[in-house]
Every structure is written in C-alpha cells, then in structure tokens.
Write the structure tokens for this entry.
Amino acid sequence: MIRIVETGDKRIEKFNARPAFPEEAEKAAAEVLSAIRREGDRAVRRYVAKFEGFKGRDLRVDLESIRVGLASDRVGETLNGSKNTLKGPKTTLIDPKIAKAVEDAHRRVLKFSRASLRKDWSMKTPRGGSEGEFFTPMDRVGVYIPGGTAPLASTSVMTVTLAKAAGVKEIVACTPAGKTGEVNPVLLYALKVAGATEIYRVGGIQAIGMMAFGTKTCRKVQKIAGPGNAFVTAAKRQVYGYVAIDQVAGPSEIAVLTDGSVDVRWIAADLLSQAEHGSGWEKSLCVCTSRKLAEEIRDEVLRQTETLSRKALVQRVIDRDGILIVVAGNVAEGLEVVNAFAPEHFEIMTKNALKVMKGVRSAGAVFAGPWTPESAGDFVAGPSHVLPTGGAADMFNGLTPDDFRRRHSFVSFTEGDLRETRATIEAFASVEGLDGHGRAATIRFE
C-alpha cells in the first residue's frame, strides 16, 4: 500500500526510522569474521561454498585470462589489448554498445574525480616558516562490488575509478560469483577498465573479512569501500579499526521533492528506480505540494510497477510501506521533510531547482532539475554513486577520491616562530602537567 500523509503525521517519523544493523546480520558477521581471523583461506572457502555455492579452490580471477569480444563474432581483444579468437576457452562476448557505455562512464567519472581531488597547500607562519597539508595515496585498498540480485557493473566504475584517480597502486575487488564461479563479464570488463589490479570471486561477509584481515590468497588492505547488503554493512562496521572503511550503507533510498511542474510520469519512474534493487527494504519518499498531485503520483507509481521486469521486488517494498507520499504546504516546508529523512539520493523536481538546492542540509547526492534523474548519477554523471543510507547522510558524505588518500599536516617553524610561541607552549605544558612537553621548547633557548 502507498500511503499519502500530511506533514506532521507520526507515520513520517516511523518511515524515517531505518536501522542499519539488523541483529541477524550482526550475529552472522561476528561469527564469519571470527572464523576468518583464525583460519584464513580455509574459512573463506567454507563460507563461499555455504553462502554462494562455489566450491572451487581458486578464488582469484586471472586478469590476463579474461577475454572480451568487442569487434566481431570471431576476433576480439583481451582486456590487456592483445588479439584472440573468441572460440578459445574462457572467451566471453560483450556487446560493443555495452563496452562503449562502460568506457563512457569511466571517462566521465575519472574526469570528475581528478577535478575533485584536494590540492596540497601551505601558508607562511608569522616569523618566516611554513605550514599546510599534503596528500598521499594509500598503497592497497579493497572495494566491494555487489553481485547478488544484480551484477552492479556500474559500482566497479564508481569505486575503482576513484581509487585509481587518487593514485592507489593496488586495488583489490571482491564480488560474489554464484555456484559456477563465473563473474559477470560486463562487471569484469568495468573492473579492468577502471583499474582493478586483483579480482576475487568472493562475496558477502567473507569478502570483507578476507580483505580486512588478509589471508595467503589475498593480502590485507588498508581501507574497504563500496556498498552492500545488511550483512556486508555489518561486517564493514565490525572490521573498522583493523582497516578504514568508507561509510556504513544499507538498502537504497530516494526522496523526490516536486511542486507539480514536472510530469508525474517522470516522478513515478524516479521513485521506482530505487525500489527495484531487490532487498525489499528500499525506501522511496515523495514530497509534493497538493493532495491532488499526491494521488496522481501514487496512481502512476502503481501503474508503472506493473510494467517492470522486477515488479515482484518492487511490490515487496510497497507491501512493507516503503513508498510514502507526503503533502506539504509549500516547497520550503517540503524541503524540511526531506532534510529530516536525510536520503541517499535527493531529486529536486521543482521550478528554480538550483535555488531550492541551497536549502539542502542532509542528502548523499542531489539531482536538480527535470532532466536529472537519479539513474544519471548511478551510471554516468561523474560523482560516485556510493552514498550513505539509513539516515547516515545527516553525518556522512558520499565516496570521493580523497577517501583513498592520506592527509598529512606539516609545520616548519623558524627559530623566530618557536621563540614567539614558546610562552604559550610552556603555559599549556604547565596546566596539563606535561613538563617534558614544555622542556622540548625551553631547551632550545638554553
């Protein structure tokens, strides 16, 4: 059922409550991670067989053996550029249009990523020294690519490309492959194009544990990024401290604010774009400015649901009250409803959308104007689609290339700088009872 409510209705607060760590996922993550710490590869293989169905011993995908046909039915190119006949073993054809789409997305995301990197900077100190910040790439990072209900080839681009732009040399990618152990070829192609250096047919909690703790097969990484289901999210939270993580993220969600100036068919399609992901716990919030408009949007959502190939998955979201339409008195009031929801994706489908955007306080990514569907951000626009969910957009940011770099501050005082600040250093050392701190400055003038 799709409910229509007014602002202030208590059902909005209930809709906004979406815990990131279900107890079931927490318990499972603790068990699997503990086993991987003790047993390494043995435990990883056991859980891959149990949860994914793949019972082979070779967890690593050989990058050099992946062949992708791009030119014709008989001759193609390997991912490293050499020619091969497509009749050979392990050969998989990729539609040239799909390959071109992957390359287009990668090119756009790479351009945005390079432009967004924070620059080294410095400033002069009062007595002739200098101080500032500089950045260095991490050496080895891991990315998780979901591949259960849908092989998210786009996530390969939206994670690995950012790490590559940051200058990371070793980029490990893990993705579930199912019983056959065969990873979706488009996903593999996207990983290769984006710059992954190692790929493993491992998914779920076991992938997070393998990357976080390291095994004989896969050395430990410094940071893990990428989206996943509740079990992956719980695992990422539990390995925080062994490695860095990007954020905690759960089921997908979207909020759309509209004043009636955009076709209701477009609004309905955008609301459904996130409801089809497959967990059943996705959330779609629509905030509009009249009851009549709300009813039109509700009816259109129900009509379009019947046309989708994944309508059964969408229906699960509807049955769990995962789509809510709120009627606000005006756009400003509606904006506050969305800020309270703190959505992963926020579409502003109103007049003067860029002006309205200035009032956004809590959203992972914002899509302003009628020609900017959220799917443009998912696949091609430029910013990463790895974004905080579950209300975490109120305190976390989406993934950026700088998440794969280390920030270093530096200070280079002159004798004059230290002389000028000596009294302050000695005063703090005295208050805090840290005479060694004070002496480190004092001794230089004795």
Q: What stands out?
A: The radius of gyration is 25 Å. The longest strand covers residues 130-137. The chain is about 40% helix and 20% strand.
